[in-house]
Amino acid sequence: MTMRLGADPEAEPYVIQVHCTSCGAASDPAPERVPGERRAKAEEWALAHTGKADAQGRHHTGYRVTVTMFWRVSPSEEIDPPAPDRP
Ligand SMILES: [Zn+2]
C-alpha cells in the first residue's frame, strides 16, 4: 500500500499569527495562500502592540511568529475499521 502526503485540501494552506512573549496577546490568525503573504499585517500588529504601554508603563518588544500548515495523508486503500452502525 502506498500513502501520499500533501497539503490538506480542506484547510487553509498557511495561517500566520503573532504572539507577544511578554503578555501572551496574539493577533487574529490570518490565512495565507503562500507563506508571508500577510506578513505586513502581522508586522503592523506587532508594531502597534509595542506602541501601547502596559499598566506598568512598559512596552512589549518580543514576539513569537508562527506559520501553520495542514497536511493530509491519503492511503491508497482503506486503513480504518468499518464505521460502527448507528442505532
Ligand atoms: Zn504584550
TrEMBL record:
Residues 3-77 form the DUF7848 domain. It comes from the Bacteria. This is DUF7848 domain-containing protein. It comes from Streptomyces palmae. The lineage of its organism: Bacteria, Bacillati, Actinomycetota, Actinomycetes, Kitasatosporales.
